Structure to design on (297 residues):
């Protein structure tokens, strides 16, 4: 019997595995190698790894984990989960049956690309989600923001720290008069109409085509597509979730335990706040430590 099976072996999952391996617990990490930021050329804001390609950071982490004899890294997806605390069973997509006393779910989320030509193609390059991740590199340039709901006004206020040149794209949203007045007061132009295409010019340049008017060029476009968990194992288990502005997150307590005893969750899958490599890593560390401590006699 393994102590813990970790489903999702990226920043959160590997961080959990490291703590458990150092506590000499028997751990299996299942991973399908599709971290959310794999589209980005560089990962930023990660202490000690700033401006490194994200896949390089993960490769280095895997190499470091290899020195712990009780950690097994498996390139496979988890297909199903059953059982209860002290007796969980995970079946992989290559039909291996694995048993463990605890589970950590860290399989992340997927950004759902809108059906707009050029959006998915430029995701992570000239269409990006997060100023903390990439804002410094494009500071003082002309930024665009795709409106995604009331939370977008916080982005407008936030972006002032990086640039004075911002254009908001309503993208079919019905933006109320008080928000329009606020934007006008900040001298932030609002372009109504739906985005029909994003064309790229150069490395950080987007031409936004609108259904109701002329196209608008910006240097970089910020957008927050809806997200969905990368797998549906939590649904099959009936785990509690909470709503976030862009999707859902698994509900956990302060020990990162989900609504089902013995199942812990970490990373973007269970983060209703600002997603980042550092947050995922920290949550993974905590999930690993609390899972280990729950098995003490
Ligand atoms: C374009 C972009 C750029 C970003 N840039 C930055 C940045 O510069 N700095 C920063 O801090 N953050 C950045 N982020 C955020 C960062 O990518 C996430 O916060 C981070 O990847 C979350 O880590 P995680 O371990 O929770 O999930 P992920 O990194 O998404 O990993 C989940 C893992 O689970 C695996 N998986 C999925 N389903 C299964 C299954 N059924 N079985 C087994 N494995 C499975 C996946 O293949 C994947 O390897 C960026 C995000 C995006 C979209």
């Amino acid at each position: 019997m393994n102590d813990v099976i970790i489903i999702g072996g990226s920043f959160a999952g590997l961080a959990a595995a490291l703590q458990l391996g150092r506590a000499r617990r028997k751990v299996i990490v299942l991973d399908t190698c599709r971290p959310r930021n794999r589209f980005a050329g560089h990962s930023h804001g990660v202490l000690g790894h700033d401006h490194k390609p994200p896949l390089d950071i993960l490769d280095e982490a895997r190499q470091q984990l290899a020195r712990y004899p009780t950690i097994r890294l498996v390139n496979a997806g988890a297909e199903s989960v059953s059982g209860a605390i002290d007796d969980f069973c995970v079946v992989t997509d290559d039909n291996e049956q694995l048993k463990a006393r605890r589970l950590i779910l860290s399989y992340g989320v997927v950004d759902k690309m809108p059906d707009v030509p050029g959006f998915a193609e430029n995701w992570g390059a000239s269409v990006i989600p997060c100023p903390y991740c990439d804002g410094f590199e494009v500071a003082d340039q002309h930024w665009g923001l795709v409106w995604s709901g009331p939370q977008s006004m916080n982005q407008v206020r936030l972006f002032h720290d990086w640039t004075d040149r911002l254009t908001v794209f309503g993208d079919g949203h019905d933006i109320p008069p008080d928000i329009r007045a606020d934007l006008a007061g900040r001298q932030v132009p609002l372009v109504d109409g739906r985005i029909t295409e994003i064309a790229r010019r150069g490395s950080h340049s987007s031409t936004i085509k609108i259904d109701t008017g002329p196209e608008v060029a910006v240097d970089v476009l910020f957008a927050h597509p809806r997200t969905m968990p990368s797998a549906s194992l939590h649904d099959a288990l009936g785990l509690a979730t909470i709503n976030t502005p862009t999707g859902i997150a698994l509900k956990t307590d302060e020990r990162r335990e989900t609504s089902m005893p013995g199942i812990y969750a970490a990373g973007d899958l269970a983060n209703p706040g600002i997603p980042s490599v550092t947050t995922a890593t920290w949550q993974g560390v905590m999930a690993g430590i609390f899972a280990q401590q729950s098995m003490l006699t």
